[in-house]
Amino acid sequence: MTGLTTTASLIYLISAFCYVIGVHLMRSPKTAKKGNGLSFVGMILAVIMILIEILVSGRVQVGAWIALAAGLALGIFYGFSKAKRVPMTDVPQLVSLFNAVGGGAAAAIGAFDYMTANGHLPLVLSIPVVLDIVIGGITFSGSLIATGKLSGKVSGKPITFPGSKFVNILVVIAIVAAAILMITQVDNSWYLVLALLASLAFGLLMTLPIGGADMPVVVSLLNAFTGLAVAFAGFVINNQVLIIAGALVGAAGTILTLQMADAMNRSVANILAGGFGTDDSQSVSPAG
Amino acid sequence: MSEELYANLAIFVLSLLVGFEVMSKIPSTLQTPMMSGANAIHGVVVVGAFAIAAEANNWLLYVLTFFAALFAAINVAGGYTVTDRMLGMFDRKPAKKEEDKK
């Protein structure tokens, strides 16, 4: 390791430490705010370090700087102002929106690496790339529908249509086929498009039949999915802080989902089967 | 299996275990803030947006870089801000009524 990569690795380790301790502190109302602050410190450290790394590499094209800076500036402005202004009652849909974009970012990174692979990607990279695109795509569209349902823009009622099971199966087959094609033939962008479209469709089909009252559990589940997508992005770009933070969120989100479902006296499978929840506020408790 | 892959896999599995461990038995009032806090943490994907920017060299890749940066930045900035606001509600309860501390 050179001096820079050693420093970078250590900084990423400190950053990961901040996330774990931050989440730990968030377990109690008294220290929760401090925990979130610590996790933010970890985030800033990681961003400063990667910025130094790509500056030193000196390989970044002007166009890429513009794209990066414009994306960051717009994103920070939009995210910050949305989060500052939202009424407390509308927070769940906003969290779901932030989760959607996180999944979208992971999918974009996966797509980028597939397209820059020049027809050759070893299996240990092509598998996480494909998982990134598929999971990222599912969380992106699924979380957007969840946002819509929670905010009332999409009907909170379970939306089903005849033959939906059959369509689901077709979409899953399309995802698996596209994934296999992408792994075996790296140079065809159409497979990437197919995988992305099928994943987006699956996200829609997965969340539409679920009632508004069950949405928070689904948002939590999709949150865990995004965590995993981010961890796979870490494998792709070989960056450990993404792997640690992503796996942490993936596991924590899974446990949280189980706890939330438990609090409603439902199983996660039962919620995902859909068709139970009611319009927004009225809660329903099927005999179970 | 290469050493690098093994190291990454080990980190992945151990981090999963840490995640399971750290999240067991949290009070239900903290479930939503916790979800939001975890959501902010996966905003670390922004590091990936920087990393791909270093490799981008044509317009299509610039567009992908732009969207990765835009999405990740929304996730980070929005996630931490909204979590902080939510947790601010806990601060206020035991204190006096409307004490805005800034």
UniProtKB/TrEMBL annotation, chain B:
Keyword NADP appears in the UniProt entry: yes
Residues of the NAD(P) transhydrogenase alpha subunit C-terminal domain: 9-92
Membrane topology qualifier: Multi-pass membrane protein
Residue ranges of the TM segments: 6-23, 35-53, 59-83
InterPro entries in the cross-refs: NADP_transhyd_a_C (IPR024605)
GO CC annotations, alphabetized: plasma membrane
GO molecular function: NADP binding; proton-translocating NAD(P)+ transhydrogenase activity
Localization per record: Cell inner membrane
Chain's role: The transhydrogenation between NADH and NADP is coupled to respiration and ATP hydrolysis and functions as a proton pump across the membrane.
Protein name: proton-translocating NAD(P)(+) transhydrogenase
Organism classification: Bacteria, Bacillati, Bacillota, Bacilli, Lactobacillales
